[in-house]
Design a protein that fits this description.
By secondary structure, this protein is mainly alpha-helical. The protein is about 85% helix and about 0% strand.
């Protein structure tokens, strides 16, 4: 492709061919100009893309940290549920004990009240 293709054309080429060659040469110049502009723009935008890439890395690191925190929170939640279940069980035992004490208190109260009434009937009021 290094040879000049115009050398193979007949010597008496017409004006149309000349215009086509001019257009191709102009397009070549324009493409070369666009290549230079693209290279310049790439040079201008490279710091922006590097900054974006670093931000994406930071976001990914943050997401990883959030995932770890989420796992930690799930574990903590399980611990809290176990602790709450233990507290509720202890409260249930405490309530059962309190009900038993109240029943025993009622039993003692009625026995003492019965003894007081019996002693009043018999005329003995020592209490």
């Amino acid at each position: 492709m290094s040879e000049d293709l115009t050398n193979r054309l007949p010597a008496n080429h017409d004006e149309r061919l000349s215009r086509v060659l001019d257009a191709v040469q102009q397009l070549t110049v324009r493409v070369d100009g666009l290549d230079r502009k693209i290279d310049e723009r790439l040079y201008d935008t490279r710091p922006i893309w590097e900054h974006v890439a670093s931000k994406v890395d930071q976001i990914e690191a943050g997401l990883q940290e959030l995932r770890q925190n989420q796992q930690d929170l799930r574990q903590e939640s399980r611990s809290l549920k176990t602790y709450l279940r233990d507290i509720l069980r202890r409260m249930s035992v405490f309530n059962d004990t309190l009900v038993a004490i109240q029943a025993y208190y009622r039993y003692i109260y009625y026995r003492v009240r019965g003894l007081e009434l019996k002693s009043e009937v018999n005329g003995q009021c020592d209490l």
